Amino acid sequence: MTLLDMGKDNQIVFYVITGSTIKRFFLLDLIVGTGIYFSVKFISSSVLIASIGSFIGTEGIKKAPKYLKKMQWN
């Protein structure tokens, strides 16, 4: 496809990332994930187990509010 072949189908897509999303990423994934990683690494002395534990820990923290909301009694 050349530049001349591109007609009216050209689209520009803008993604908006809010400040709260960036703040949540830094707080949860970087700070909490690093803390979990070093805690598990200190306990197990294994980089692989620490990496897996950090991933599972941060994902668990992200999904915990949805799970806890389902468990509440109405």
Q: What can you see in these coordinates?
A:
- It is extended and about 60 Å long.
- With 74 residues, the protein is mainly α.
- It has helices at residues 19-44, 47-71.
Task: Spell out the blueprint of helices and strands.
Layout: H1 19-44, H2 47-71
Short description:
The protein has 74 residues and is mainly alpha-helical. The protein has helices at residues 19-44, 47-71.
**Over the alpha carbons, how many angstroms does the gyration radius reach?**
21 Å
Question: Which of globular, elongated, flat, extended, rod-shaped describes the shape?
Answer: extended
- The share of residues in extended strands comes to under 5%
Question: Sheet with the most strands?
Answer: none
In helices, the fraction of residues equals 55-70%
Which regions have little confidence, pLDDT < 50, spanning 5+ residues? Answer: none
Q: N-to-C terminal Cα separation, in Å?
A: 59 Å
Question: What structural category arises from helix and sheet content?
Answer: mainly alpha
Number of helices: 2
The SSE string, one letter per element, is HH
